[in-house]
Amino acid sequence: MSSLAGKTLPSYDLFLASRGLSRNLVATVNHYSAAYEVVRQSDLIAVLPSDLRSQSRHAPFLHATPLPLRAPPRIVSLFWHQRNDTVPAQRWLRETLVGMFAEAD
Predict the structure, then answer these.
(1) Distance of CA 19 to CAs 10, 23, 70, Å?
(2) Largest CA distance in the chain
(3) What is the predicted pLDDT for the residue at 12?
(4) What's the 3-state SS for 7-53?
(5) How many beta carbons lie within 10 A of that of residue 33, not counting itself?
(6) Residue in 65, 18, 31 with CA at minimum distance from that of residue 45
(7) pLDDT tens digits, residue range 47-105?
(8) N or C, which end of the chain is more exposed by having fewer CB within 10 Å?
(9) pTM for this prediction
């Protein structure tokens, strides 16, 4: 049901298509919290990151189940102009984001 706006085809749909499968995408939202609200107020389902479930105030009203196919990892990329390489605030932000999204060994 949900995907972040701005992508032509959500990564999970690309993953399904590579296996000859598809889903009936009926709504697109720009934030996961909006997806939780839409699911709570409808008979729709959504593919959402499990680590965000605990942050949703709607979690107690929803049932979560593992996907029948394990989703591929999400790729997060950072881009910045080279003139900002040494700007302390920008460096701090990049390091913070990398720390948040780095894979645990």
Answers:
(1) 15, 12, 12
(2) 50
(3) 76
(4) CCCCHHHHHHHCCCCCCCCCCCCCCHHHHHHHHHCCCCCCCCCHHHH
(5) 14
(6) 65
(7) 877 766 667 776 777 888 888 887 777 777 888 999 999 999 999 999 998 888 776 54
(8) C
(9) 0.54
